């Protein structure tokens, strides 16, 4: 969700209520920052602001303040935990809009695969809330190439959950892959050809005027 035009007191209350209510909810809700490119599923806005068209807006109103038309509910100030919890129960995440043919099914990568992946775009909010720690996994995966095992080690999320998240991103075409580098063959120092005798023996023979060949017998 995104907060628009709320007082600092109300913003702090919403963030606190989310932490308290998260254990009682089936969906995972997060507050998006203003700079985030993710489309918000719900906007909590103060009357007088102008949320984007098509967004589900919940108006946060003062006592006696008129409610603008076209909203999906209201939260009266001062904000109350139970009213906030009941609102979130009613506002289930919207299913993603089918605007293109689904991508062909891809085989799920093994949990311990060495292939590394990196996000090419930030996932939609609907996608993030359907995965355990989706926003956390996306943050790590957008920074660099990671395998499922490496992602699990950094995020402290089970490897199987990381593998399912990567698989979902692949299904939507939101990741690029980087195959693990092939192991480098060990380099061996060139061998010197064996000579007939060490150099110091040759010099000794030359000084003593000896030959390298044995005299013929008979």
Notes on the structure:
By secondary structure, the chain is α/β, with parallel strands linked by helices. Among the domains are: 2-90, no CATH class; 116-178. 32% of the residues lie in helices and 11% in strands. It is built from seven helices and six strands; from the N terminus they run βαβββαβααααβα. Strands 1-2-3-4 form a four-stranded parallel beta sheet, with helices on one face. It has a two-stranded antiparallel sheet with strand order 5-6. Helix 1 (8-21) links the parallel strand 1 (2-4) and strand 2 (42-45). Helix 5 crosses helix 6 (159-171). The chain is rod-shaped, with a radius of gyration of 34 Å. The termini are far apart. The relative contact order is 0.11. Mean pLDDT is 75; it is low at 95-106.
Summary tags:
two-stranded antiparallel sheet, alpha/beta, four-stranded parallel sheet, 7 helices, 218 residues, 11% strand
Total number of beta strands:
6
Overall mean confidence score, pLDDT: 75
Structural class: alpha/beta
Low-confidence stretches: 95-106
First-to-last CA distance: 108 Å
**Silhouette:** rod-shaped
Helix count equals 7
* Biggest pleated sheet: 4 strands, parallel
The share of residues in extended strands comes to: 5-15%
Helix content: 25-40%
Task: Write the element-wise H/E pattern from the N-terminal end onward.
Answer: EHEEEHEHHHHEH
Please state the CA-atom Rg, rounded to the nearest Å: 34 Å
Strand order of the largest sheet: 1-2-3-4
